[in-house]
Design brief:
With 249 residues, this protein is α/β, with parallel strands linked by helices. 38% of the residues lie in helices and 17% in strands. It has helices at 3-11, 59-64, 78-83, 94-114, 132-143, 164-170, 187-191, 210-215, 226-230, 232-248; strands at 34-36, 47-50, 53-56, 70-73, 87-89, 125-128, 148-152, 161-163, 175-178, 198-201, 219-222. Strands 8-7-6-9-10-11 form a 6-stranded parallel sheet. A 3-stranded parallel sheet has the order 1-4-5, with no helix packed on it. A two-stranded antiparallel sheet has the order 2-3. The longest helix is centred in the middle third of the chain and has 21 residues, at 94-114. It is elongated, with a radius of gyration of 21 Å.
Length: 249
């Protein structure tokens, strides 16, 4: 994840900072005051995946950490809960979540442009879910004058919004952007769509069966960590600034 490189270059401007990678001699590693981990952190055995490569950090290193060592990880992590007392999860900061949603929207727009054969202004887009990312994506699409519908369980007066049940009955648009971490789209529903839409799924977990989509002739894109792909420098700097603010407090 290149975001961590941006975090490193940002923090080393004002802190004595070193980058742990596959070339690091873990036996000679100085016990840090602060340890910044990638988004998902270590697995249950303390192994961290960096750029697709597994970095095995010995348990002796984790055991050597002082109670005063502040550990930052992106998301809640069971291993960190076991080995540390002083930790925080930067993806739980409201400001970072909002800024990250903006970068996610940028990445989604890039995917939309790359995978449609017409101007996006001529595409009718359905956005499923209206959480932080859903709202940001809708805002960007409407700013670009893309016809956009909000699909959610309960509509609360949003312009061009429709409930999931009504949407299933009336049919979908040219493009579906799914942000909801729930199994809303199944094989039977996909079989009913003619012509077949483009589906961009940015939700966490597997909520749409990619094989079913393929058998239905639907172009399906499972988008993962869009800020890390399309805006890793910006995303890394956002993480670094969040950590800076934490260290000041």
């Amino acid at each position: 994840d290149q975001r961590m490189q941006a975090v490193y270059f940002n923090l080393c401007k004002t802190y004595d900072t070193y980058l742990i990678n596959e070339f690091t001699n873990m036996d000679k590693l100085t016990i840090p005051d602060v340890l910044v981990l990638p988004m998902h952190g270590p697995d249950d055995k303390g192994v961290i995946t960096i750029k697709g490569q597994q970095l095995a950090i010995p348990m002796s290193f984790w055991a050597s950490l002082s109670d005063h060592t502040k550990i930052f990880c992106g998301l809640p992590n069971s291993f960190i809960n076991k080995v540390a007392y002083n930790y925080g999860f930067y993806m739980e900061h409201e400001t970072l979540v909002e800024q990250n949603a903006g970068l996610t929207a940028e990445g989604t727009i890039c995917l939309l442009i790359d995978h449609t054969s017409q101007s996006i202004k001529d595409c009718h887009v359905d956005v499923i879910g209206y959480g932080t990312c859903g709202k940001e994506i809708v805002k960007w699409l409407r700013a670009l004058e893309v016809p956009t519908r909000i699909i959610r369980r309960v509509c609360e007066g949003e312009a061009d919004s429709i409930t999931i049940d009504d949407w299933k009955a009336k049919g979908c648009g040219d493009v579906i952007i799914n942000t909801a971490p729930a199994a809303i789209i199944d094989r039977k529903l996909m079989e009913s769509w003619k012509p077949e839409p483009l589906i961009i799924d940015i939700a966490s977990g597997t909520v749409i069966d990619e094989k079913d989509a393929m058998l239905c002739g639907i172009q399906f894109i499972k988008a993962k960590a869009l800020p890390a792909i399309y805006a890793w420098k910006s995303a890394g700097n956002i993480i670094a600034e969040t950590i800076r603010e934490e260290l000041k407090s």
